């Protein structure tokens, strides 16, 4: 993943709530990332990521997923915190991720997701 897209917020163009800076939620996420003892519980504490992608390629031999034309539509706070605290990441810290094969550009479903997420 291009880290610049996280730093300049380009990756979150279709995000439901965008990043809430200096919020108690962000502080708690960053605190759990900075404490290696909490890494095994990260999937319990956080809802994970939802990513719209125009293309998804899975390589089971290399155990990689290549996505392109993507936008994180939910999980901006977690991903931004992971980026900010990347020095603390370990193999025990996992995050649930959902990839949806749909173009973020012009996807009418984004509006419906925003409505449903508020309820």
Computed over alpha carbons, the radius of gyration is 15 Å
Number of helices: 5
Strand order of the largest sheet: 2-1-3
- In this structure, how is the largest beta sheet organized? 3 strands, mixed
Total strands: 3
Task: Quote the beta fraction.
Answer: 15-25%
What value does the average pLDDT take? 79
Q: Which stretches of 5+ consecutive residues score pLDDT under 50?
A: none
Shape: globular
Query: First CA to last CA: what distance?
Result: 31 Å
* Helix content class: 25-40%
How many domains make up the 3D coordinates? 1
Structural class: alpha+beta
N-to-C order of helices and strands: HHHEEHEH
Give your account of this protein's structure.
The chain has 119 residues and is α+β, with helices and mostly antiparallel strands. It has five helices and three strands. It has a three-stranded mixed β-sheet with strand order 2-1-3. α2 (24-34) packs across α4. The longest helix has 11 residues, at 24-34. The protein starts with a helix and ends with a helix.
Provide a concise account of the structure shown.
The protein has 119 residues and is of the alpha+beta class. 33% of the residues lie in helices and 23% in strands.
Give the arrangement of secondary structure elements.
Elements: H1 3-7, H2 24-34, H3 42-45, E1 49-59, E2 64-74, H4 76-84, E3 97-101, H5 109-118
Parallel strand pairs: 1-3
Antiparallel strand pairs: 1-2
Keywords summarizing the entry:
single chain, 119 residues, alpha+beta, three-stranded mixed β-sheet, 5 helices, 23% strand, globular
């Amino acid at each position: 993943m291009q880290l610049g897209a996280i730093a300049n917020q380009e990756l979150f163009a279709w995000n439901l709530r965008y990043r809430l800076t200096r919020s108690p939620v962000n502080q708690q996420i960053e605190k759990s990332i900075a404490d290696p003892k909490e890494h095994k519980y990260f999937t319990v504490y956080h809802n994970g990521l939802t990513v719209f992608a125009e293309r998804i390629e899975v390589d089971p031999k290399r155990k990689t997923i290549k996505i392109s034309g993507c936008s994180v539509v939910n999980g901006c706070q977690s991903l931004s915190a992971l980026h900010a605290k990347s020095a603390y990441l370990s193999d025990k810290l996992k995050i649930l991720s959902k990839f949806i094969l749909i173009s973020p550009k012009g996807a009418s479903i984004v509006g419906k997701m925003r409505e449903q997420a508020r309820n």
